[in-house]
C-alpha cells in the first residue's frame, strides 16, 4: 500500500498509462496475456492503494467471478465448437444443444477481459486524487466535472451507508428471501442519498459555488451547433445526402466547440496544484510506450495477441517477448520503490 | 456587524412562521451561541446570515438581515460567501473532493485566486486548525473531529469575517467535539473571528460565549449576555441548573466558576450504592471469555459480563476500544473468535440476527437507517411482519408509551431527531424483547429529548427489561445508570455503581461531581435534593 498518498506522477502520465492498459486488454484475447495483464494491474492497484483505505473490490476475486459467470453463460447459450462436453435436450429453448469446451473457454476469456479492465481502473482510481482529475477537465466542462467528482467521492460513502442500512434492517428481523425484501434497503439508501445531495448542494452554495452565467448569445450558438450536428446526422443516415450531411455536421461540431471554448474562457477558475513533469513520468511513459509499441507495431510476436478457441480448442501461442513488453505497465511500481 | 430587524420567515407549504419578528444584533469579534429546542428555527436563522434562506429554501420572508453592510437576503449565498463561512452538521455531506488539501483549496480555485495566494491561504488554515500533518490524507481516513476541522478550514480559506456553524459537533464523540470547540474558541479569541454557533452541547462553550440567542418553539428570540439570559432558560447545562437552584450570583458558566460558590457548602456525602446488580436467577445476557476483532486485529480479549433483568448498565470507554464491536457480537452481526454469549439462557451460536434481536433488541447509532415506511405506525408493523408475529394491540400501546400516538400517521422522516429516535426504538421493541441494547442513543438530541429518553428507559427498566447502553455522554449516564462498565484495551477495567466509577474519574465525572468533589453527587437532582 501507498503510505504517503501523494501523487508522484503527472496526472496526464496516469491517463496515458490507463489508455495503454485499456488498449492492451481490448486488443488481445490470448488468455496468457490477459492473465499477465490482470496480475500486473492488480499489483499496481494494491501498491497504489492509500494506506488505511479499504480495497473497494478485489480485482483477482472479481475476475474469478466474471470468468465463472461468463464461462457458464457462454457454455449454456453458444452451442458451437468441436469439443462437446455433453448435450442438453434440443427442445430446451436457448439452452438445448451441445455444450462445448470452446464456448466455455471463450466465455471465460471475456470474463477475464472484464476483470482486467476493473483492475486497470482500480489502479488508476487508487493513484489519482479526484482533485487531479478535476483539474484535467477543460474549464468549459468544469461544472459537469464537479458533478462527476462528487459522484466518485460519494461511491465509498454510499457503500458504507448501504452496509449500515443492511445491518439495521437485520436488527429488526428482515431476512432476504425475495426481491421485495430489498425495498427496506433501497428506500432508506435512496432517501438518505437525496438528503445528502441536498445538504451538499446547500454546502456548495454557501461556499459560493454556482455555475457561471453564460451569455445568451453563446448558449444560442451551442444549441445551433448541436442542432446542426443532429441535422447533418439525419441527412447522412436517413436521407442519404452523405456529403451535405458531413459538411453540416462539421460546421455544427465547430460551432459547438467554439461556443464551449468561449464559455470556458469566461470562467475565472484557477488551479491550486502545479503538476510538473519529472523523471518518474519519463520512466512510466517509456514503459507504457514499449507496451503500446509491442501491441500495435507489426512484428513476429504480434500474431500471438489474437486467439479464438473456435472451432477446435487449442493452446494459445505464447511469445515470451510480448509478455515481457506488457510488463512495461509495471513502471509505476518503480517510482514507488524509488520513493521508499 | 450583523443586524437583524423584524425578520419573519415561513417555509413553503407551512402555515406557521418558523421565525416570527426576530430582531437582534451581533457585534464584531463576538462569540454568539444560538440555543433552543429542536425545530425552534436556530438553523433557519443561521442560514439567513448568508442568504441560504430564502435563496436555497424558498418560502416567504420579511424584514432585513444586514451583514457587514450587505443585505444578505437580496445578495444571496454567492455574494455572502465572501463574508460568511458556513459549516454544517455532517462533515461528510459538505465535501466535494477526497483529500484534505484539495478540499480546502476547492473554493479558492472556484473564485479564481492566483496560485501563490491560494498556497498562502491553505498553509494558513492548515496551521490554524492543526491540520498540517493530515494535509495529504484522504478524508475518509480521518476521524469525525478531524473531518469537521477540515470543513472549518475549507470555510475559513475564503477569509470570511464571520464563521457560522450549524451543530458542528452533533455527530461527533465528546473528544472530537472538544477538539472542534477548542478550535473555535482559539479562532475567536486569537484572530477575532466572529463566531455564530448553533449547538446542543452548550456546557463546553458557555464559558467562552459573549452572547446567547435563545429561540422558543414559536420562533421568538431573546438575546443578550449569557448571565442575563440563562437564568430564565428552562433547560440548561447542569452547572447552570445547580447555580439557579442554589441562587448563586453572578451566574457561574463553568465548573471552575461554580466551585468558588461550592466551597462554602459542605455536602453530606451520598452513600455509594452497592455495585451488586439485582441478581435474580440467571442473567438475561451472559458473556464469557469473549474474543473478537476484524481481519488480523484483535479488539476484544477475554471479556466477560452479565446483564440482569431490571437494570440499566452503561458501557463507556474511549473511541475504538471495542464498544460497538461488543454490541455487534451480541446481536450476531460479528462472529466472535472465542467465547460464548447466552441470551435468556440460550447460546447465540448458530442463531440468526433476526432470532437474536427478537429477544434482545438493538438500536444502532444511525436510527434513520431503520426508517423507510410511510407512517410511524407502519414502521412498527413492518417489524412484526418481519418476525411473523400477529398484530394485536401492541402497536397502539407502544406508540402511546413512546408518546408517538399523535404522530402515528405522519411520515417518520418528517419528525424531529428525538421523535425519529423514538420511532426507531418502537420499531425494534415492538416484539416485546426482554432486553435492549442502545449504541450512542443521545447523539444529536437536545436536553428535552435526552430527558424523555431517560424517563422511557427507566420505565422499561422498572418493568423488568435488561438494558445495556453504550455512550460517551457522561451526564446522561449519571442520570440513568444503575451500573457503569468501563471498557479498556481488550477488556473491562471498571464495573461498579455510578458513584464509584463516575464520581472520582477525571475523564467520566459529570459536572455536578466536579463542582462538589467527594460528595458522591452526580446529577442536578442529587444537588437539589440535599438543599431540600
Automatic annotation (TrEMBL), chain A:
Pfam families: CbiQ (PF02361)
Cross-referenced InterPro entries: ABC/ECF_trnsptr_transmembrane
Predominant place of localization: membrane
Keyword set includes Transmembrane helix: yes
Keyword Membrane among record annotations: yes
Compartments (UniProt record): Membrane
UniProt membrane topology term: Multi-pass membrane protein
Keyword annotations of the record: Membrane, Transmembrane, Transmembrane helix
Membrane-spanning segments: 7-25, 59-78, 112-134, 140-159, 218-235, 241-261, 282-301, 313-334
GO cellular component entries: plasma membrane
Name of the protein in its database record: Cobalt ABC transporter permease
Species this chain originates from: Candidatus Viridilinea mediisalina
TrEMBL record, chain B:
Superkingdom classification of source: Bacteria
GO molecular function: ATP binding; ATP hydrolysis activity; ATPase-coupled transmembrane transporter activity
Gene Ontology cellular component list: ATP-binding cassette (ABC) transporter complex
Membrane-spanning ranges: none
ABC transporter domain mapped to chain residues: 2-242, 285-514
CDD domains for the chain: ABC_cobalt_CbiO_domain1
Keywords tagged on the record: ATP-binding, Cell membrane, Membrane, Nucleotide-binding, Translocase, Transport
Annotated compartments: Cell membrane
Family membership noted in the UniProt record: Belongs to the ABC transporter superfamily.
PANTHER family tied to this protein: ENERGY-COUPLING FACTOR TRANSPORTER ATP-BINDING PROTEIN ECFA2, HEAVY METAL TRANSPORTER
Name of the protein in question: ABC transporter domain-containing protein
